[in-house]
Protein: Diphosphomevalonate decarboxylase
Amino acid sequence: MEGTDPSLPQLSKWKLHIVSENNFPTAAGLASSAAGFAALVVAIAKLFKLPQDMSEISKIARKGSGSACRSLFGGYVAWEMGDLENGEDSKAVEVAPVSHWPTMKAAILVVSDDKKDTPSTSGMQTTVATSDLFEHRIKNVVPARFEEMKKSIHDKNFEVFGKLTMQDSNSFHAVCLDSYPPIFYLTDTSKKIIKLVHQLNDAEGKIIAAYTFDAGPNAVIYYEQQNESKVLGLIHKHFSSIPGWDKVDTSKLETVDIAADENIHKGVSKLILTSVGLGPQETSESLISKTGEPLST
Structure:
């Protein structure tokens, strides 16, 4: 409007009142900041009618939260490092859409939804400054694994995908421990869940479940739809008392005879079941009242 009528106020100079809500734990290592910044940047881009090239918009989103750049797309997404020293060309690109591999699912065991002792950003800054392993990981491990992971997704090869996922999670947390002072994200419960997943895969003679832990103690367990009965059967065996099973017909889950610490469930507060999905979606709902104030506090 202001382009056709110079007398109108410039929308780009108006102040914005931003209200954001999460429906899952915040600052607990479950990418809440990625979801928030991705939604924020896309909403502002639409408000100001900016070009909707998600890779270009991702360059802005990652400045709020690195992982936010990947959240602008649906399906399977890669965060490319770029070539410039200042990182300005670092962006997210789509590896494959949801429709390519729609059977990928995830069970999230929320070990703690408390705010982390070491925030992701400051933790990474400490790691970059003090970890000898970090340099090796960035130069020798990540580039090759990056390509292998993309290929496993294109090939829909869960065994390769699962192994790479677990290896990279372990590598990341090894680097955290190598920082000075060391950064402890995993708890004893996290480690017991890791052992449980390996026991399941050993029993099956192949990888049907894969764990990963971001900068926090919460376990994300990937599996394919065809193995849901076995994977959720194992999780239900040891975590049936936690909330999150309301949408699952647990009577149809397989009985998996794998033992674990009888008190392992006490270290988990809830279960979140999800699957590969879409990027930011437009909605008619509003979190702000007609007077510009938050509808809830």
Observations:
- The longest strand covers residues 104-110.
- Residues 13 and 48 are 11 Å apart (CA to CA).
- The chain has a mean pLDDT of 90.
